[in-house]
Design goal:
Elements: H1 2-23, H2 28-36, H3 38-62, H4 67-77, H5 83-91, H6 96-125, H7 136-160, H8 162-190, H9 195-223, H10 228-239, H11 243-253, H12 257-282
Helix pairs in contact: 1-7, 1-8, 1-11, 2-3, 2-6, 3-4, 3-6, 3-9, 3-10, 4-6, 4-11, 4-12, 5-6, 5-10, 6-7, 6-10, 7-8, 9-10, 9-12, 11-12
Length: about 290
């Protein structure tokens, strides 16, 4: 019963609230920033939408994972950004406007790309099991309901009632993090019997995904000769995945708690690596803070 409540009601509701919170910070001009900062946005989106899934497939293929866990890694790699990456970008004194823009645009694009990439992942790692294939159109609609619609609702409040949006945004931001913490805690409690084995199974691949994508984001942004703040932001945006969305897709749309394990473990590890990155940045070990 608890598992059904978590997957069927609490997870989608939590993600819906998180996405509303993101929408409360967005304006139409955020989507127009691609015209103002085309290079930063373009490189960030290429890294998030193309390089990240490729890395996910690569790591899922080279680590000794069961087919379900391998698909779970692919699901995680198809869900870039999220409200957490915006907060971390702010904490490391990155280009927050760029972070919000990348998160907003990638969130809209991945509504379409997620089911396509996940189906490719299941075909690659679970070739004999076609019963779990996601119906593309239905999945696009489902993801749109829990991602696109709440973002639009938040944006509407921000457009017509900016003062209310500003007050709500502060509340929802921390409420979102609380929801994420509760989701992770509930998953850990539910899977406490297999937690250690799960950590041993996917800890290495999820940590590798986190660190490798952060490194690739940093490298790509540096090669593109972006300013320091934008480099920090793209490092975070590419390296921090939307674990809540990945868990929701695995648990709700695919009804596979096993596929949600990589996202659950990742969501724990990313806070550790993000804190380490923030400390390096603030101590001037990686960037000269401007």
């Amino acid at each position: 019963m608890e598992s059904n409540f978590l997957s069927a009601i609490f997870l989608p509701l939590a993600l819906f609230i998180i996405m509303i919170g993101m929408g409360l910070t967005l304006k139409v001009m955020d989507f127009q920033r691609v015209l103002v900062e085309p290079k930063s946005v373009l490189f960030g989106l290429i890294a998030q939408l193309i390089i990240l899934p490729i890395v996910g497939f690569f790591l899922a293929g080279i680590f000794p994972l069961t087919p379900e866990l391998a698909v779970g890694v692919v699901i995680l790699a198809t869900c870039p950004g999220g409200a957490t990456s915006n907060l971390i970008s702010y904490l490391v004194r990155g280009n927050v406007a760029l972070s919000v823009t990348l998160t907003a645009i990638s969130s809209l694009i991945t509504v379409v790309t997620i089911p396509l990439i996940i189906n490719l992942g299941m075909q690659t790692f679970m070739a004999t099991d076609t019963a779990l294939r996601l119906p593309v159109l239905k999945t696009i609609i489902q993801i749109a309901v829990i991602v696109f619609i709440p973002i639009c609702l938040g944006m509407l409040v921000n457009h017509y009632q900016p003062r209310i949006a500003a007050k709500l945004e502060k509340i929802v931001k921390w409420l979102s993090l609380s929801f994420l913490g509760l989701i992770i805690f509930a998953l850990l409690v539910e899977g406490r019997a297999t937690l250690l084995s799960s950590l041993l199974q996917v800890g290495g691949v999820t940590l590798s995904l986190n660190l490798l994508t952060m490194f690739l984001g940093y490298t790509l942004a540096t090669i593109a000769k972006l300013d320091h703040k934008s480099v920090k932001t793209i490092t975070v945006e590419v390296g921090i995945q939307n674990g809540t969305l990945a868990i929701t897709i695995a648990s709700v749309l695919l009804n596979s708690p096993t596929m949600a394990i990589p996202a659950g473990i990742y969501s724990l590890l990313m806070f550790v690596t993000s804190a380490a990155f923030a400390l390096l940045v603030r101590n001037g070990k990686v960037f000269s803070v401007q």
